[in-house]
Amino acid sequence: MVQDVKDPLKEVFDESSFDDNERGKKGRRKKVHLDLKCPLCESGVKYVTYKDVYQLKKFTSVRGKIISTEKSGVCAKHQRQLAKSIKRARYIGLMPYVALDA
Question: What is the pLDDT of residues 23-66, one digit of tens each?
Fold first, then answer.
């Protein structure tokens, strides 16, 4: 005689518990988009220049990589300007390509 044992995880991950709006194709969850306001648009910046290194450093990681739009909350227009300005500042020597390891 085998008793029917209830699986506690089955109740948590039951298919009926997920809302249909949260699921995309093939049962995958959709990404949640946050409504972040562009900090450059709010401050009234029309164009990002390579000369303002302090502002450009805010949009680079500790290692020197350009932070993505999703993490920084910058609009597409300013993200393109930031990428171009950071690359120009690196070429001229105002910013490092990579950070030095400790």
Answer: 556 777 766 666 678 999 999 999 999 999 999 999 999 999 99
* DSSP letter for each residue of 16-77: GGS-GGGB-GGGPBPPPPP-PPPHHHHTT-----TT-HHHHHTTB-TTSPBPPHHHH---HH
Quote the CA–CA distance of 46 and 93 in Å, as a whole number: 24
Q: Which domains does the chain have, with CATH numbers?
A: 32-92 (4.10.640.10)
Nearest to 83 by CA among 36, 40, 34: 40
Measured in whole angstroms, how far is the alpha carbon of residue 62 from the centre of its chain? 15
* Per-residue pLDDT reduced to its tens digit, 66-88: 999 999 999 999 999 999 999 99
29 closest CA partner among 42, 38, 20: 20
Which residue has tokens 């993490």?
A: 71
